[in-house]
Design goal:
mainly alpha; about 75% helix
Amino acid sequence: MLDRDFYPEILSSDDVKLLHDAVRNLVESEKERAIMHDPESLAKIVLRLYRNGLTEPGKLMSLASLVAARQAEQKAAD
C-alpha cells in the first residue's frame, strides 16, 4: 500500500508540477489577453479545483479562468 493511500491530502511531485504549470500557463495566457488576476488567488483556485478532482490540465485552466473572472465580477459589483 502506498503512503498516498494513508495521506491523500499530500501532493506528489507530479501533482505539484502539474499545478505549477497550470498556474504559470494561466497567468501567461491572461497577460496575452490583457487580463490580470492575482497569481496567488489563481493558484488557490487551481488547487481547490484539483483537490476536488479536476486533474486534466486544459480543463483545470479553463475552469480556473472562469472562476477567477466570476470572482472579479463579484468584487467589482460590491
